Recover the amino acids of this structure.
């Protein structure tokens, strides 16, 4: 088999454009951690001083802690259910031919392009029509609508590139389909499944629109932040909280992206 001997050359104009794009995109976000260490209440330059007081204050706010644990509970349930539903859905999309598959896949991915405001209003009207009381349960339902398409989109590339000869060998040895899945398909694609789990957890943890329309008396962390924006004296503490959320979300997304690439280099080496 011919070996690929090409190499990548640096495209300097493209690299400069990417750097400028990233700078413009993330510059406003960089001001959040900068001002979170400011000793003054008001967001302005020059900074009045350096302090960790706003971070320490977060540990003494019981409503904040309740909202945080509510978000963790909702995100955990949503990420688990989204991943469990996305695995067979992605496998069905990749493996089987069915009439109307393309429109069906497009319908599943529709929440990725619909504004969260429209989805929130639509689900609120539906739940009110059904007489369902707003709670963390309804928030989780709304997050499922958003996270399931993301989960499928994360898993599809991995299942498309998966070498099915391993499954065929397992079937030739007499293993039933469900044991082939647990002993071959699932372990080989576990990094992508874990990446899907982390990605959907992050999306659910940070989601605001669905929580805004579908939460009842139990608020999630984004709703707590929204409510505290009315009080200027609490704004530095919110900056500190936002900095922690940014760092937490960045770590989870980075890990999920790295896990999603596990095994791609090996498959690329086999194709050379």
């Amino acid at each position: 088999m011919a070996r690929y001997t090409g190499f990548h050359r640096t495209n300097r104009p493209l690299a400069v454009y990417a750097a400028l794009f990233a700078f413009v995109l993330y510059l406003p976000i960089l001001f959040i951690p900068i001002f979170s260490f400011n000793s003054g209440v008001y967001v302005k330059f020059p900074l009045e001083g350096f302090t960790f007081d706003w971070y320490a204050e977060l540990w003494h706010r019981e409503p904040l802690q309740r909202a945080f644990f509510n978000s963790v509970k909702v995100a955990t349930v949503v990420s688990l259910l989204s991943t469990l539903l996305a695995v067979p859905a992605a496998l069905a999309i990749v493996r089987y031919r069915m009439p109307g598959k393309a429109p069906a896949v497009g319908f599943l991915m529709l929440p990725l392009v619909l504004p969260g405001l429209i989805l929130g209003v639509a689900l609120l009207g539906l739940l009110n029509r059904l007489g369902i009381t707003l709670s963390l349960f309804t928030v989780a339902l709304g997050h499922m609508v958003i996270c399931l398409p993301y989960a499928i989109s994360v898993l599809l590339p991995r299942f498309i590139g998966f070498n099915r000869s391993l499954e065929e060998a397992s079937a030739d040895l007499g293993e039933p389909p469900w044991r082939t899945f647990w002993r071959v398909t699932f372990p080989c694609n576990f990094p992508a499944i874990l990446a899907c789990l982390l990605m959907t957890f992050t999306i659910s943890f940070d989601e605001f629109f669905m929580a805004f329309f579908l939460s009842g008396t139990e608020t999630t962390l984004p709703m707590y932040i929204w409510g505290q924006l009315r009080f200027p004296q609490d704004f530095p503490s919110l900056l500190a909280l936002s900095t922690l959320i940014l760092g937490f979300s960045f770590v989870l997304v980075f890990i999920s992206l790295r896990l999603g690439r596990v095994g791609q280099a090996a498959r690329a080496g086999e194709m050379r």
About this structure: The mean pLDDT is 82. The longest helix spans residues 62-95. The chain has 13 helices and no strands.
